[in-house]
Each structure stands twice: as structure tokens, then as C-alpha cells.
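Subject: Iodothyronine deiodinase

B.,
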Amino acid sequence: MGLPQPGLWLKRLWVLLEVAVHVVVGKVLLILFPDRVKRNILAMGEKTGMTRNPHFSHDNWIPTFFSTQYFWFVLKVRWQRLEDTTELGGLAPNCPVVRLSGQRCNIWEFMQG
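Prediction pasted inline below.
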């Protein structure tokens, strides 16, 4: 937890609002303009190479955009990014590390030993 608690919770609240608005607006647009949203999502998939995979069908994954699972996944990732950053003079993030013995732990646990 690299940020002080009040700063972290305020930033988490802001991220929650951003993701919620993103999902709501995306869902509304998906309902009102499904063809246009499909074209935009496919265009994004072209950039990443996802649409070139023969095992992916847009009919399978486009409906998952702006779903409840999508909301929780994006929120979790964005919140994790907040904890993985630090501010000048703040605590370092508690990143995972691997000891020379192969044992996995977090950096704070590693520094205690």
C-alpha cells in the first residue's frame, strides 16, 4: 500500500466512479447503437491482433464488454495499479518477488527476513 490511507481511498472512489460511468455509458451505447459499437470494438481488436485468432468469435466476446464481470475486472485492475505506484516520500509498493531459493513472497516480507 504505497499511498497514505486517505489518499488511497479517495483515489479508489474516483476510479470506482470512472469505471461505473464507463460501463454505464458503454452499455447504453451497446443497446442503442450495437453495429457502431461492434465496429469500434473490432477495430480495437485489430490493433491488438485479437481478431486474427481463429478461435475467437466476436459474437462470443463482444457481449462481455460492459457486463458486471467486466466492471469488476476493470475495477480490480485499476485499483491494483493504484497500489503498485508510489509518491515521492511514500512507501514502496508491496510487489511480489522470488527468493533465490525459488520461494515467492512480497517485498515487505522479504525485507523483514
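The chain has a mean pLDDT of 83.

T.
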